[in-house]
Fold this sequence. Notes:
The chain is mainly alpha-helical. It folds into 2 domains: 102 residues, no CATH class; 309 residues, no CATH class. Helix content is 71%, strand content 0%. It contains 17 helices and no strands. α6 crosses α12. The relative contact order is 0.16. The N terminus is likely disordered. This is Chromate transporter.
Amino acid sequence: MNSSSTSNQIPAETIASGGAADLSPPAQSSWQIFVRFLRFGLLAWGGPVAQIAMIRRELVDEERWLSSERFNRLLAVYQVLPGPEAHELCVHIGMLAGKRLGGLLAGLGFMLPGFILMFALSWLYFTIDITQSALGPIFLGVQVAVIALIVRAVHRIGEHVLLDRWLWGIGAASAVAALVGASFWITLPAAGICYVLVQRGQPAVAAIALLAAALIAYAVGQESGILPPLSPGTASAEGMADQPSVWGLFLSGLKAGLLTFGGAYTVIPFLRDDAVGSGWMTDAQFLDGLALSGILPAPLIIFSTFVGYFGGGPLGAVAMTVGIFLPAFGFSLLFHERLEQVVENRTLHGFLEGVAAGVVGLIAATTVELAVTLIPRLPSLPAGMLIFALALAVLYLWKSKLNIVLAILVAGVLGWLLFGIYG
Length: 423
């Protein structure tokens, strides 16, 4: 359940059985492991679905580094854990080929191209006043497409997470709680506990617990609800007055990395809460970071590099990237031998299923909040709705790993054509 991307669920009987005899990777030097997974990183277009399919095709079907059954079991484990599972699979398979050093090099190779590209784009974006250049209408159109991208992600994640009426109820309650200002530190654990109670045949207790948690979260009031739109454009000197420390950016990334149940899109509300809520980014900049990550060969979660750059410059970009990827490295490198035990723990599964439903609600609420802040900045609402509809149509109707790239590029062109006339 770690990602919307893995739409084909692994059958329980496949996970439970050992299947074919497990194979072993061929002898690989550290350099060979790094280069192999660096190549995967350079070709990592189209999100986790395409990335996992690429890894399976080359290392399982063609080169037989491991059996299909083994790959399925690993994928099932990483669906349960937080973090980008394509990256986690690379670390784990790298360990099979070269022990812990091999796992570290495989993970670094896979993420390095996206990190370098996003770092360079962050520097360029930071040095250009977007709103005062010809790029302003283009980026405004792209921001509309990002809203469509998140809407599609909510649907895709939800159809694999919200599998019964209780999970739907938990997701809806979490969305409402987020919109009225409830803290996810309360609502997400409560969502997991409630679903465990439901599975144990105590629905009345679960309903009472969910309601009580929502009331407590609202009373505590640790979040501000719908964030007011901040001034669009690039960061200003005044905005930089509230820069977080490098350590704070690392912790922000680490928190987000530990909470990415349901795929990379689930990191959006947590990073937005820190970045936009604390005032060192605007919603416009946040949407631009998401758009840029969507056109790079990298896990979507690489937009954290962009967020960190706005919070603390080059060191901030590195700190947040390290924080957000640390769990993805750590689970494989430290708990390599014990990870598959997670598959057998049904209580933990129930808790994580409830948490995942709550996260879907958080993403839905964040989508509403981002749309609310974007609408007043559109020069023409009908033009914005047209871009949104076309981007959504591309994402739904064109079944290609490049549909995200096309949607963003088309939205940019339409933004330049439609919004530019109002400039």
